[in-house]
Design a protein that fits this description.
Blueprint: E1 2-5, E2 7-10, E3 13-20, H1 36-65, H2 67-80, H3 83-96, H4 100-116, H5 121-142, E4 155-159, H6 164-169, E5 175-180, H7 188-196, E6 200-202, E7 216-220, E8 225-228, H8 232-253, E9 269-274, H9 280-285, E10 291-295, H10 297-301, H11 309-322, E11 327-331, H12 359-364, H13 366-379, E12 384-389, H14 395-415, E13 424-429, H15 432-436, H16 438-441, E14 447-450, H17 452-460, H18 478-493, E15 497-500, H19 511-517, E16 521-524, H20 529-537, H21 541-553
Helix pairs in contact: 1-2, 1-5, 2-5, 3-4, 4-5, 11-13, 13-14, 19-21
């Protein structure tokens, strides 16, 4: 038996023969063309066909995996006709007189390199999108036949990496799981695998060898283990795990429509975190009770320039309308630190995590903040909106932000533009400063939402982006949990609700602690809703509260 360790990105266990993806190869010669107008026309024809194919893939993805998956290919359509992309290709065809296949390959590589060199991980992931788009156009130009799977029986698919379009086009009835040498957990391919429920492992490197083709393997998408020619004990153990996962998922589906109430009657709201209007579908599919965090900065990350008021209004309106009256908490712009946007032209900072970011940018550049607030309040007429300010450290910041809200409401009233007067305003608690003065901040707002990722980072002085500090970044640290309890207590003393919108909210090891602390809401990824609901419904809070509070507030030898 050969054991290979990668990174699991889609939970599940799959067993079958290993099959290497047969990718269509686009072969062409680089040559000088005589008629550049005809070559440009060739490119335009291939571009139109690629856009048409991407439209068909979007519909296929929507049918199989929902609007979030479809959005990827709709975005690819827009990228395929991007003016900068087109102009670069046209210039090279006309000036260098190169054939279209060579030009699209070169320009695609240049654009991919540009994205890959950016500091922001979201933008880096776009490099794969550019490669996918340019490769599609080159395949059409060169007449390459689509590759894929030539197998009569279901298989475990192996590849160096899989482009999103390749993943969607696969015959899912033939795919038991997949494993790739490259890739990242935040890539579209990993997201699509999770959405479609295909067990997946990435990043196994050169341990994935062609000589393993046709051999029996087992993929554990939870642990990231790949076993080639597994022994009987390994096979029996993992097949038992697979059966338990399938049964557990079937049982979880029965929880849809059930309340989030513990065995002794304590209730908690379970909401969802999203980053796009099209993420509403998985919220509904997984029975989320509302949206506890809409990361509005992704609207800015997707644009080449500042998104207009109308552009933002349409996005917020869609989310609020689609949620049919359920609460939607939209976080105002939160860029800086690990999320940089070129057109903001932010000066270089030695320590951006402690620099000009989030609400600080909004207060320093009120014209940007005002545009977003106008869009938000206009959209409030279409649903139950709550607005949340990130990265708060002082009372004066909250008061200044609220003052801008009042100014925007007066403007809209004067202009005769409808908006809801019933919009709650809250803040994220993600700095120790905000936690320590949460008794004062609670008098200024309608709710708190604790951002545990940054709260842990700042409390432990531990960079959450630094992989070498993994064991030091401990969100279970008593200092973090004590701050969470302090914030929740201060919220309740002042008559407001308190929730968590950081990743810790989905940590089932802490669910009992959060219930005992008395948190009112947990906002998690859509796929975490039902497992979290089950944990809540299996808990007797009264039984665990005393012991947990003693552990949390008493002597701690692990400090």
């Amino acid at each position: 038996m050969i054991s290979i360790q990668g990174k699991g990105v889609s939970v599940g266990v799959a067993a079958g023969k290993l099959y290497f993806y047969q990718r269509a190869k686009s072969t062409f010669d680089r040559h000088i063309v005589d008629d550049t107008d005809a070559e440009w026309a060739r490119f335009k024809s291939a571009q139109e066909k690629a856009i048409e194919q991407l439209g068909e893939l979007a519909e296929k993805a929507r049918a199989e995996a929902g609007d979030e998956a479809a959005l990827l290919f709709e975005t690819h359509q827009m990228m395929a006709e991007d003016l900068d992309f087109e102009e670069a290709i046209e210039s090279m065809i006309k000036d260098d007189r190169l054939n279209a296949e060579a030009v699209v390959t070169d320009v695609g590589a240049q654009f991919a390199e540009m994205f890959a060199s950016m500091d922001d991980s979201y933008m880096q992931a776009r490099a794969a999108d550019v490669k996918d788009i340019s490769g599609r156009i080159v395949s059409i130009l060169s007449g390459a036949v689509q590759g894929g799977i030539d197998s009569e029986e279901p298989i475990v698919l192996a590849a160096d990496d899989l482009a999103p379009s390749e993943t969607v086009q696969l015959d899912k009835s033939k795919i038991l799981g997949f494993v790739t040498s490259l890739g990242s957990g935040s890539s579209h391919t990993a997201i699509l695998a999770r959405t479609m429920g295909i067990p997946a492992i990435i990043g196994v490197g050169d341990l994935l060898k062609e000589e393993y083709a046709g051999r029996e393997v087992i993929v554990d998408g939870g642990t990231g283990n790949l076993f080639v020619d597994p022994d009987d004990d390994t096979r029996d153990r993992l097949m038992q795990k697979r059966a338990e996962l399938i049964k557990r998922n079937e049982l979880l589906q029965q929880l849809k429509g059930q309340p989030n109430i513990t065995k002794d009657g304590q209730s908690i709201r379970i909401y969802c975190n999203i980053g796009s209007p099209d993420d509403v579908y998985p919220v509904q599919e997984n029975d989320g009770g509302g949206i506890g965090l809409f990361r509005s900065e992704f609207l800015y990350l997707e644009c080449d320039d500042y998104p207009t008021e109308d552009y933002q209004f349409e996005a917020y309106k869609k989310v609020l309308s689609d949620m049919n009256g359920l609460e939607v908490v939209i976080r105002t712009l939160d860029i800086g630190a690990d999320k940089q946007i070129d057109y903001f032209e932010m000066p270089h900072e030695e320590n951006p995590a402690l620099g000009n970011r989030a609400l600080r940018i909004c207060l320093n550049r009120p014209e940007i903040f005002r545009t977003q607030l106008r869009a938000l309040y206009r959209a409030s007429a279409y649903g139950k909106l709550s607005i949340m300010f990130p990265m708060v450290t002082s009372v004066w910041e909250v008061r200044e932000a609220k003052k801008m809200c009042e100014q925007v409401k007066k403007e809209l009233t004067a202009e005769g533009i409808p908006f809801s007067e019933d919009v709650d305003v809250g803040i994220m608690i993600e700095t120790p400063a905000a936690a320590v003065i949460s008794d004062r901040l609670a008098k200024e707002v309608d709710f708190f939402s604790i951002g545990t990722n940054d709260l842990t980072q700042y409390t432990l002085a531990c960079d959450r982006q630094n992989n070498d500090l993994g064991r030091f970044f401990n969100a279970h640290h008593p200092a973090v949990l004590r701050l969470i309890k302090m914030v929740c207590d201060n919220a309740h003393r002042n008559g407001i609700w308190c929730g968590i919108c950081g990743e810790l909210g989905a940590d089932l090891e802490l669910t009992e602690t959060f219930l005992s602390i008395g948190l009112d809401e947990l906002s998690v990824s859509p796929r975490s809703v039902l497992p979290l609901r089950q944990k809540v419904r299996d808990t007797y809070v009264s039984v665990v509260r005393e012991g947990l509070m003693n552990d949390l507030l008493g002597d701690q030898t692990s400090l």
